[in-house]
């Protein structure tokens, strides 16, 4: 594994940064999106630049590159707290290819959209030539705005599960909008009351890959948000003066900034290794993702909280906007497995593979 950025990764990061720089300051995004009557220019530019098709196969209009090449885009999306399902579109287009090529292609050109369920309590029952879906999905990102929903693991009895694709406008499907802690983000509860599912919309063998990919992407968003909060804090340390000196000369603040940088670099390496593991088809890919996700939630939150503290009283104000980065981190940390979930997964993997046990620290 090469820990240095490739030319492709640097190029994608630069393009994404330039595209996302056109987004209004986060504190105005929610209000602006409610008033908007047309697709913002930056969204059109994002699709024109093929940013959301980097890891999708070429046959659906993607670039056919790896997950590692995609990470810089997702990190920049977190840095700009982008009010768009970047992670969901990237993951759905990649996983739908080879199964639902038409929909995957439509996702990449912006014609249709697809959300991905996180926690769900749903089951499928066979009824003649159709399957019937009943149950609920707990808070699902972008479900109110999306045309379709991917459910990674739906029970079909006897302990077996399948991945299901359903239209969110199907008869029996209901959505209730929720208030998300991330104000640049949409969330909804989804209910299924005897929703008919065509057998062609069921597939096996991709559920774990889909959830691992989404866990990796939301961790990358946390890294991006934490990086921006840290950058703003260090810039403030070099500008704010007290008693005739910039506060950056204060040793306590230096130590806080140094610890934050260590956390950011450690998370970057964990993400890079997880992406490399998934690209290489390693059997430990899921565990590598769990390492990154379990560490990332705590590390990114600590960096964002310290960045707010470094700003002093102004750090808590609504207008400064630092809270948007913390909100993005808190939302991502709770989705597709929180730190405790992933540590439990790692503990189980160690016990099965090496006969080792260790306590889970909550």
Structure description:
Mean pLDDT is 90; it is low at 27-37 and 355-362. Helix 5 (86-96) runs antiparallel to helix 6. A hairpin with a 2-residue loop joins strand 9 and strand 10. This protein is 49% helix and 18% strand. It starts with 6 loop residues before the first helix and ends in an 8-residue tail after the last helix. Strands 1-4-5-8 form a four-stranded mixed beta sheet. A four-stranded antiparallel beta sheet has the order 2-3-7-6, with no helix packed on it. A two-stranded antiparallel ribbon has the order 9-10. The protein has helices at residues 7-20, 29-35, 41-48, 67-79, 86-96, 101-109, 207-239, 251-279, 285-310, 322-333, 339-354, and strands at 114-116, 120-127, 130-141, 148-157, 160-167, 173-178, 187-197, 202-203, 241-242, 245-246. The chain is of the alpha+beta class and 362 residues long. It is globular and about 80 Å long.
Question: What is the secondary structure topology, with strand pairs?
Answer:
Layout: H1 7-20, H2 29-35, H3 41-48, H4 67-79, H5 86-96, H6 101-109, E1 114-116, E2 120-127, E3 130-141, E4 148-157, E5 160-167, E6 173-178, E7 187-197, E8 202-203, H7 207-239, E9 241-242, E10 245-246, H8 251-279, H9 285-310, H10 322-333, H11 339-354
Helix pairs in contact: 1-4, 4-7, 5-6, 5-7, 7-8, 7-9, 7-10, 8-9, 9-10, 9-11
């Amino acid at each position: 594994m090469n820990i240095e950025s490739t030319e492709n990764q640097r190029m994608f990061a630069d393009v994404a940064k330039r595209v996302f720089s056109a987004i209004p300051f986060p504190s105005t995004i929610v209000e602006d999106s409610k008033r908007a009557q047309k697709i913002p220019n930056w969204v059109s530019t994002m699709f024109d630049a093929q940013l959301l098709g980097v890891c999708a196969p070429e046959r659906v209009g993607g670039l056919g590159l790896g997950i590692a090449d995609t990470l810089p885009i997702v990190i920049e999306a977190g840095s700009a707290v982008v009010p768009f399902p970047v992670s969901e579109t990237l993951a759905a287009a990649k996983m739908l290819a080879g199964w639902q090529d038409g929909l995957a292609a439509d996702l990449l050109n912006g014609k249709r959209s697809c959300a991905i369920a996180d926690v769900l309590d749903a089951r499928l029952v066979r009824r003649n030539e159709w399957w019937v879906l009943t149950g609920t999905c707990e808070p699902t990102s972008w479900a109110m705005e999306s045309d379709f929903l991917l459910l990674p693991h739906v029970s079909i009895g006897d302990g077996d599960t399948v991945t299901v694709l359903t239209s969110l406008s199907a008869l029996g499907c209901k959505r209730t909008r929720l208030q998300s802690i991330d104000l640049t983000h949409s969330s909804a509860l989804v209910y299924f009351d005897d929703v008919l599912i065509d057998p062609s919309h069921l597939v096996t063998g991709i559920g774990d890959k889909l959830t691992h990919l989404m866990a990796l992407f939301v961790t990358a968003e946390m890294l991006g948000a934490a990086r921006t909060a840290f950058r703003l804090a260090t810039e403030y340390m070099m500008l704010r003066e007290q008693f005739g000196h910039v506060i950056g000369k204060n040793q306590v603040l230096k130590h806080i900034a140094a610890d934050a940088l260590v956390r950011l670099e450690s998370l970057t390496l964990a993400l890079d290794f997880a992406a490399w593991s998934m690209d290489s088809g390693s059997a430990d890919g899921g565990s590598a993702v769990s390492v990154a996700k379990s560490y990332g939630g705590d590390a990114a939150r600590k960096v964002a909280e310290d960045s707010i503290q470094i700003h002093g009283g102004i750090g808590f104000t609504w207008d400064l906007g630092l809270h948007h980065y913390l909100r993005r981190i808190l939302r991502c940390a709770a989705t597709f497995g929180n730190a405790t979930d992933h540590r439990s997964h790692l503990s189980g993997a160690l016990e099965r593979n090496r006969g080792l046990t260790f306590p889970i620290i909550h």
